Amino acid sequence: MTHLSQATLTAVADGELPAGSQQRVEKHLYTCSRCQHELVLLRNVRSRLRLLEPPTPPGDLAHRLMSLAAAMGPLDEHSPLLGSSIPLGSGSARLGQYPESPTTPGEQSL
What we know:
Residues 9-36 form the Putative zinc-finger domain. The protein has four helices and four strands; from the N terminus they run βααααβββ. A hairpin with a 2-residue loop joins strand 2 (85-88) and strand 3. By secondary structure, it is mainly alpha-helical.
C-alpha cells in the first residue's frame, strides 16, 4: 500500500491541504490505519507546541540585524534580495527557495 507523505500529512494537520487533493487524501485516510495514526501524532505535536511560550529574541537582535544589513550594502534593481545567498550555520540558503520534503518509498506527495 502506498502511504501519504509526511508533507501531505503535515498539510492535513495544519489545515493547508490544497482543495484538489482533499477527496483523495480523505479517501486514503479512511482506509489506512498507519496514516491515521501518523496524523493523530502530528495533531498531538501541534497541540503541545501551542502550549509553549513563544521564544524571547535576544536583546541585541535589532542591532545585529541592522549591522548585517549595513554590511550587505544598499540594494538596487540589479541586486534583488530574492536569490541572494545567506550563510546559515555550516551551510547556506537562498532566500525565496524552500527545500523539497523528502519522501520515502511507499509515500506519495500532494
